[in-house]
């Protein structure tokens, strides 16, 4: 099965495991000019001599978003103009393969050192240094042209954010070590500690800040920065005094954050983390996938367990999500598709959330590949119609959405003679145009093949 996952922030996706993200693929006359003959020490010396910053793209051969950065962003002339003027740039491969050339092999020790020092746990990771080698920004995940340029401006001090949090971090940590706790900026510094992989410090700062918040009046908890911290903190569970901001009445938090469902997202995470995941983990023990395919957990028991602490709306949502996770894990695709469809009918998925968008697209593609049910295919067409009408940032590979939508319409037309072939061709052409603009050669080949089959009235599944 061809997985239809999108390149989203903080999720590392894979294309072909054997593909090599080769530096030579980036042309020398446009886009970012990456150094390909200098080692790390020489890069730093050159940056210092030319009074430039340093930009490091940490990637892996198996990383899908890394490949997309190469194909869509690094070759952009606007990106190249900015980065070539301000930075000495280098790409560093973080994994090792039998196909590596000598230049990549020479960088093995530096790659290991960079990984160790800067805690590179998500790919791609982008590191920004001063000419003296001090880290001033760290970003992860696929970036659009505008996002990458803004990250570069943040590093150089010319961006929209007047103060770079990474530049404040070293002084903050020094003061903190001497007993001076700056609670006003601590939420921001907690996030920097996490981004840098300083997890012990992250936990220590988080606990200190939670203690500080308990000493405040409850009304003072409800600032945007505090709510963002509390919503993202794994230390805030159902037993935390701060959980009242999210349950049972999260409307005020939604209003403060100006996003409906903000509080519910935290509650759903807590339910999954405290109830559903332990329930499933216990059920998995001693069973292989063949056994799981033939078994069903005691869903009624799980439902009663959730209802003991949460209302029926949360219980229904959590139960469906737990079932989806179970059926996906056990590779019970028919049950997964049916349960996912039930989630969609309940509108449990957020089409503005890139993680949910990826899951919707993936399940719709499963239906396209595996189902001949008019009802299921029509459900998937409805889901995808909602997605293709959304305005997404360039970080989303919308050609995948267009391609899924087009293929679903085409299959529905072929199986049930609905006269929608022109509509299918229109959306597949949109996918082709997007792939052409992004210079995505592999996708171009696939979409041309699909269009040819549609034109000849041949199955595309």
TrEMBL record:
What residues does the Thioredoxin-like fold domain cover?
47-148
Q: Cross-referenced InterPro entries, in alphabetical order? A: Thioredoxin-like_fold, Thioredoxin-like_sf, Thioredoxin_H-type-like
Question: What Pfam families does its record include?
Answer: Thioredoxin_2
Q: Which Gene3D superfamilies match?
A: Glutaredoxin
UniProt name for this protein: Thioredoxin-like fold domain-containing protein
Give the source lineage, highest ranks first: Bacteria, Pseudomonadati, Bacteroidota, Chitinophagia, Chitinophagales
């Amino acid at each position: 099965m061809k997985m239809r996952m999108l390149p989203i922030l903080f999720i590392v996706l894979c294309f072909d495991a054997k593909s090599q993200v080769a530096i030579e693929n980036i042309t020398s006359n446009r886009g970012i000019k990456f150094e390909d003959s200098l080692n790390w020490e020489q890069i730093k010396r050159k940056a210092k001599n030319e009074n430039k910053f340093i930009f490091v793209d940490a990637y892996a051969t198996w990383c899908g978003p890394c490949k997309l950065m190469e194909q869509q962003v690094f070759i952009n002339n606007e990106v190249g103009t900015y980065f070539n003027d301000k930075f000495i740039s280098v790409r560093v491969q973080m994994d090792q393969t039998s196909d590596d050339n000598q230049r990549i092999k020479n960088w093995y020790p530096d790659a290991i050192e960079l990984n160790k020092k800067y805690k590179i746990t998500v790919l791609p990771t982008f590191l920004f240094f001063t000419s003296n080698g001090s880290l001033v920004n760290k970003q992860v995940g696929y970036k659009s042209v505008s996002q990458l340029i803004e990250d570069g401006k943040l590093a150089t001090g010319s961006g929209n954010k007047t103060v770079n949090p990474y530049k404040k971090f070293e002084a903050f940590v020094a003061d903190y070590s001497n007993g001076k706790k700056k609670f006003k900026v601590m939420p921001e510094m907690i996030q920097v500690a996490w981004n840098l992989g300083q997890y012990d410090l992250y936990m220590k700062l988080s606990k200190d800040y939670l203690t500080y918040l308990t000493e405040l009046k409850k009304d003072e908890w409800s600032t945007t920065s505090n709510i963002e911290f509390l919503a993202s903190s794994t230390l805030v569970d159902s037993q935390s005094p701060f959980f009242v901001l999210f349950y049972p009445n999260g409307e005020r938090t939604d209003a403060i954050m100006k996003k409906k469902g903000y509080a519910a997202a935290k509650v759903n995470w807590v339910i999954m983390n405290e109830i559903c995941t332990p329930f499933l983990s216990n059920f998995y023990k001693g069973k292989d996938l063949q056994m799981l395919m033939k078994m069903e957990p005691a869903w009624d028991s799980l439902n009663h367990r959730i209802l003991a602490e949460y209302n029926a709306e949360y219980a229904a949502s959590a139960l469906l999500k737990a079932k989806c996770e179970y059926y996906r894990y056990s590779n019970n695709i028919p049950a997964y598709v049916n349960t996912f469809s039930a989630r969609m009918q309940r509108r449990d998925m957020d089409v503005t959330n890139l993680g949910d968008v990826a899951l919707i697209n993936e399940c719709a593609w499963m239906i396209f590949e595996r189902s001949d049910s008019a009802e299921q295919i029509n459900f998937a067409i409805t889901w995808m119609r909602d997605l293709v009408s959304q305005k997404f940032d360039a970080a989303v590979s919308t050609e995948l959405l267009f391609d899924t939508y087009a293929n679903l319409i085409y299959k529905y037309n072929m199986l049930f003679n609905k006269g929608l072939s022109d509509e299918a061709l229109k959306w597949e052409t949109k996918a082709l145009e997007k792939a052409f603009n992004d210079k995505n050669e592999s996708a171009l080949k696939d979409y041309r093949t699909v269009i040819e089959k549609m034109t000849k009235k041949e199955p595309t599944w």
